[in-house]
């Protein structure tokens, strides 16, 4: 168990590296008598919602709901008061998104995309949604379930962000790592997920996942196949050929990798946008638009995209596509992947991006300023074919050379700056001297 402090130096409810325990000694006693982490957070949440509005407070420094007994420890922190039930139902708007791009960058669906997904899932007839890394979709499904009496759609959130455990019961949230299929709360959480997938013999359930774009496709595919196998355990042998419906949300340029592991998947033209991402926004054109798409094993002719947002139905392809995605009579399909109109190359016998031209040397289409030598197949440092750059024996030498080159460039840059500053100083001095000389000459002539 790890005792940690927040930025202000005060002890807070901070979980250990596994996300299973807190640093306070009373909690140690609770865990010693068998009270689980999820049960503890559930008790805290139930106590919190019973408080009057004026006493409901949230510590932004620690990202934690506060009970009256906790306020003294967070006295010097940034605390928000009057936390309403509406805010508790939208925790993704209350919590700060994680922004470490190297480890756990967290981008959240814009309401436009989220509402589209909720309506689409409802129209397709799904009653249960397994939300893997999609907290905002989970929120809106629960809001729809509580606000619309006719709605019978439920959801279970699997997410690595342990902070959501403060807002959800054990049957609606599991602390989960999608890259290694690990449930942090052990068999209890595993059983919750299994029960959710196998309910009604696995009928009426879909998995929607939005993995980090920096993650490798292969480990994600391995994890998703384990979830599919878990879903299949509740089926009879007669339904062994059926597939778990999936929406995998990922950039379009990963299409070949995703289809390599899931050949039945196809890519929809719908552009998914995010609230807290500068580039992935709807409404932009050309290469500035969001590259994020939906990959699914559901037949595309069943999925209706909103016409008011710039989508049309192609009667030849029997699916909805973006307006710029024109049908190619030679390929017999709407071939554009990025929203621009692609051109057909008769030499390559396929459609290519409008910025590409056919290279007679490479014998395929590429950018006009591409290198005809093409990428090196082996190591980028020494050129050998039996290993890659990460395992090159000369990598330390290469790093030293690169470091020396960087230092040399830095020295040259500093020298140029000094010379520029010196020149500006000398010029200023020269101008001042000339001005004084003119003034003295003027005074002499006047006298």
From TrEMBL:
Biased amino acid composition, Polar residues: 421-430
Ranges of biased composition (kind: Basic residues): 403-415, 431-440
Pfam families, alphabetized: N6-adenineMlase (PF10237)
UniProt keyword Calcium, yes or no: no
Top-level taxon of origin: Eukaryota
Cellular location(s): Cytoplasm
Disordered: region residues: 403-447
UniProt cross-references to PANTHER family, sorted A to Z: RRNA N6-ADENOSINE-METHYLTRANSFERASE ZCCHC4 (PTHR13493:SF3), ZINC FINGER CCHC DOMAIN-CONTAINING (PTHR13493)
Record's protein name: rRNA N(6)-adenosine-methyltransferase ZCCHC4 isoform X3
């Amino acid at each position: 168990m790890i005792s940690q402090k927040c930025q202000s130096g005060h002890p807070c409810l901070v979980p250990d590296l596994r996300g299973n325990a807190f640093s306070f000694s009373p909690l140690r006693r609770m865990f010693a008598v068998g009270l689980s982490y999820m049960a503890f957070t559930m008790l805290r949440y139930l106590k919190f919602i019973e408080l009057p509005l004026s006493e409901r407070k949230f510590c932004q420094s620690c990202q934690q709901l506060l009970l009256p007994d906790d306020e003294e420890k967070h006295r010097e922190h940034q605390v928000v008061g009057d936390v309403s039930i509406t805010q508790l139902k939208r925790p993704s708007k209350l919590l700060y998104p994680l922004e470490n791009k190297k480890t756990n960058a967290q981008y959240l669906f814009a309401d436009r995309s989220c509402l589209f997904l909720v309506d689409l899932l409802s129209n397709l007839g799904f009653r249960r949604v397994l939300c893997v890394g999609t907290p905002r979709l989970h929120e809106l499904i629960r809001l729809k379930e509580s606000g619309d009496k006719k709605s019978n759609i439920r959801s279970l959130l699997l997410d690595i962000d342990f902070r959501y455990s403060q807002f959800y019961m054990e049957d609606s949230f599991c602390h989960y790592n999608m890259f290694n299929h690990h449930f942090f709360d052990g068999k209890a959480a595993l059983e919750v997920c299994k029960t959710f997938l196998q309910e009604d013999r696995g009928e009426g359930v879909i998995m929607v996942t939005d993995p980090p774009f920096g993650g490798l496709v292969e480990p994600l595919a391995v994890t998703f196949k384990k979830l599919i196998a878990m879903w299949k355990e509740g089926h009879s042998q007669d339904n062994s050929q059926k597939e778990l419906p999936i929406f995998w949300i990922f950039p379009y340029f990963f299409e070949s990798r995703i289809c390599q592991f899931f050949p039945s998947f196809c890519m929809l033209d719908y552009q998914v946008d995010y609230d807290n991402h500068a580039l992935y926004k709807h409404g932009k054109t050309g290469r500035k638009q969001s590259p994020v798409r939906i990959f699914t094993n559901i037949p595309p002719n069943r999925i209706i995209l909103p016409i008011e947002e710039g989508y049309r139905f192609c009667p030849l392809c029997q699916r909805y596509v973006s307006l710029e995605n024109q049908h190619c009579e030679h390929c017999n399909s709407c071939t554009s992947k990025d929203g621009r109109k692609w051109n057909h190359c008769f030499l390559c016998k396929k459609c290519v991006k409008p910025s590409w031209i056919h290279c007679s040397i490479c014998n395929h289409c590429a950018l006009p300023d591409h290198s005809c030598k093409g990428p090196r197949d082996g190591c980028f440092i020494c050129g050998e074919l039996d290993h890659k750059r990460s395992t090159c024996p000369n990598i330390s030498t290469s790093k030293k050379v690169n470091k020396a080159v960087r230092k040399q460039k830095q020295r040259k840059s500093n020298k140029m700056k000094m010379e520029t500053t010196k020149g500006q100083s000398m010029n200023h001095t020269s101008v001042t001297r000339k001005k004084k000389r003119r003034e003295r000459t003027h005074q002499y002539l006047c006298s």
